[in-house]
Amino acid sequence: MSGATGSKLRSMRDAIAAHVHDGDTVAIEGFTHCISFAAGHEIIRQKRRNLTLARMTPDLVYDQMVAAGCAKKLIFSWLGNPGVGSLHAIRRRTEPAALAAGETLLEVEEYSHHGMVGRYVAGAHRLPFYPLRSYSESDLPNVNPLIRQVESPYGDGKIWAVPPLNPDVAIIHAQRADEEGNVQMWGLLGCQKEAAFAAKRVIAVVEKIVPTSVVRADPNRTIIPGLIVDAVVHEPYGAHPSYVQGGYDRDNAFYREWDAISRDAAATDAWLKEWVYDLPDRAAYVAKFGAAYFKNLTPTSAPSGAVDYGDYR
Amino acid sequence: MSGATGSKLRSMRDAIAAHVHDGDTVAIEGFTHCISFAAGHEIIRQKRRNLTLARMTPDLVYDQMVAAGCAKKLIFSWLGNPGVGSLHAIRRRTEPAALAAGETLLEVEEYSHHGMVGRYVAGAHRLPFYPLRSYSESDLPNVNPLIRQVESPYGDGKIWAVPPLNPDVAIIHAQRADEEGNVQMWGLLGCQKEAAFAAKRVIAVVEKIVPTSVVRADPNRTIIPGLIVDAVVHEPYGAHPSYVQGGYDRDNAFYREWDAISRDAAATDAWLKEWVYDLPDRAAYVAKFGAAYFKNLTPTSAPSGAVDYGDYR
Amino acid sequence: MSEQKPASRNELMVVAAARALKGKRVCFVGVGLPNIAVNLAKRTVAPQMELVYEAGVFGASPARLPLSIGDPTIVTGSTATVSMHDLFGLYLQGGRIDVGFLGGAQIDKYGNLNTTVIGDYTAPKTRLPGSGGACEIAINAKEIMVIMRQSTRSFVQKLDFRTSPGHLGGAAASATLRKEQGWGGNGPSVVVTDLAVYGFNSDGEMELRSIHPGATLDEVKGSIGWELRVPANVPETPAPTTEELRLIREELDPTGAYV
Amino acid sequence: MSEQKPASRNELMVVAAARALKGKRVCFVGVGLPNIAVNLAKRTVAPQMELVYEAGVFGASPARLPLSIGDPTIVTGSTATVSMHDLFGLYLQGGRIDVGFLGGAQIDKYGNLNTTVIGDYTAPKTRLPGSGGACEIAINAKEIMVIMRQSTRSFVQKLDFRTSPGHLGGAAASATLRKEQGWGGNGPSVVVTDLAVYGFNSDGEMELRSIHPGATLDEVKGSIGWELRVPANVPETPAPTTEELRLIREELDPTGAYV
Prior knowledge:
Chain A is α/β, with parallel strands linked by helices. Chain A has 12 helices and 13 strands. Chain A is globular, with a radius of gyration of 20 Å.
């Protein structure tokens, strides 16, 4: 949690260097929408090691980070390439028969979606546990001893509980923020807010830096206050191949391509070399794709309309 | 919970007649903002009796309903005229020395704000309890046996819990809805969403009925889906003397006036006769104040600006 | 009208699943075949059905078929877009979902499902995606419909891992437990495969209801890992109508990417 | 510069409270005097302070002094307007509030507060508003400042009802309990009245820190219901500056409605 005021604008390089350390628990959140691939790639470039990677849906970003050797453990609820299939780099680190020589199995700690949401909520609300009606007669509690039962104090039996998750750092992408880190977002909200409030440090990555007056014109749109943000990174197209509602489309073609790339360890390494290690930053990544590529991903406009808050003096 | 589709537009008279019954637990919610006084007055006119009135802050609307004899019990967290002082009609029914001949004391069940919010959340999420870090070393659990302790299953001691609150009917006011009851609101959100999802039936009262396309242009602004709404009432100025962000100001002068009126049981009865019983509906109440009165309460414009959702085909 | 190609087995699945949605009100949509089935139902037997996506969308009106469950097209023009906390807490656990669709790598005769691992959990032969929302959909949606292709590898005597509970070890015990523990849902009601449609009998055991055109009883029984209950007279699944096939081929999946 | 009227006792309270906020970052604002004190602090000793209103507003910049805690002017132009669930869960219980302001009908020497009833709970002599957010502010805000007028009726030996915990029965036990039970806050640090400013000593007991200009030690002691701890040398509260009084009278409360 940041106590400072004033501009928190940093480069991605500086933000990762300052706030993501070896051994940290890192949550790059965003449910399909607004996943900070730019942050994931910078963590790879800076060669962070022994990270515990938390995310509801590890997605390609964690497949790439696992392939790059950043992770020792995954905390998640759904492990796949949405709409396509498996995360093959992660499978190679979770299926003993697929393990390469010298590699070790990733530690795995898994929940359901509601359970992962509940973990962040408990962390954000400073609760010792979050109660929910999942897990009954599922084998999940048998393999994850952190999923436990709690007795209702109203005599109506037991329900299930998950413990708080307080990442060392949460990295969330959104449409816009001011330089103090007041973040506004629309479209799928995922659990960006809950993960950010649960985390010890927060990096907010946005498509646009706007004047504070833009934020203050629509305060109900703010999901994360600058109060809890440590660094603001201005990173256009920073979510690609994920997407930003109203900004650019999900690059489904790349999600499909990754399936082929990631099935082969050597191809995966080559991809990481070409698109991560050999590039200095996200601007170079965007330039390498070229403007026409992103133009094709740009939707036509669908404006929200404005509402009136009224000026009360 | 409504399963029907299509227009749910009803008059306030019909909505109250259909959905509020003697003996019901009723929650007219709204934290200072968007309190449906129009619904409260119609409940008074229809002479509902033995209601359990739940609200975080009973405010003038429950003071008036208690004065009119609608209530047998209050569930609340803060019992006052905000910024002014006491709710005198309620005090006359809660202080034995002030009790009129033939009257009985109201039953009282009280929490803190977080506790009341938690009760609605538990009700809305179908949880047997809501855990929170309030009440330690307070006398509140001593006088309310429904505030209990729950043992964390993670070996870190006990925290407090409140039970779910599932009102028979929740009545919430907002800026706008479509005829199916998809409600959008901005400004102070209070616990309108949580109370509505917790309730068995929902009446949504709005300043404006808008085409569904207006709602669908900004889906993140929707706080209550038509799915759970039983009746939509179009009631301009229906929240007065409370207010509607961007629509009209809080009538602080009336909140102050009520202090004097409500100190005197006869003056209170006279006020109820003049402003509730002798008027057929809210339109008549608005007409009786006159257009100039509400014009004085109208703020100048402070538009939110628009955002872009993008058209993805 | 031009000559239509006969229905493929995927099309038979989609049409049978869509018909099972007749009159349903609120449906939790998965990607792929369930998504097409639900959109077909909305255009035929359930015009008032509301589509809910676990990504946080209520009342979606997608302008294209989304590849992923979190595509931007499900947001634009939807009735409400909410946090996942609200979606799972208020909508699903809150009891507002009538039908949830599930699939899986393995199903047993009581409709219990595995989407977690093949083999031993700690040293899996195949690491599958895991629960996602499946475990809580199975518990909280009032009714569960399953769509999956059948084979002796997927329709098994014993699951390697029970991710999502169905009728557990049988209907009586399951109903008692669900009631005692306050589960919101009643468990699976329909299973639609590429060969047949199944319901559940009073013991909570999967029972053949109809065989798709072109499939045989031997084929059906031969691709199930337990002794299937087969009633005396098993009708043929009514063939897709010309209009149903047209909707799938021309409107819902014109590139044939899914069906 | 025109001649200023001398400071009233309410103004002395407001100025002393504002000064106690020096350097504070995030403050939970109540209506009335705390609101004026906080806004005065923001213009003087704590320009970067963020105002949080329990109604659901973070980073408020009210264009007028709100009568109620939920006035529309605290919303327009604020940094974030959120549900009460978020405000109480994420901001307050989540440990993001540095200073909470409380008042009450009764306070005891350990800073415990009563805002619920005078007399017996089930048959009260006076029914007060109750907790509102006070109980959880007292537990979760890192530090509590109290503003209330003092009299033997309000500064009492024994509370009729303990709504909001302070230092309980003394600092040592209180600190242990707060730590063991994971409370977010450390309890009251400052009490500002119309006559004086108090801190808390190492036993958690209220101790006189300064006496306002115009008040006497006898007056202070005579309006407290317990034997007050008075250190050897009690300074006078520094008088309000011309600028502080100007801000209150011309900018913050020009109609004199509150002060």
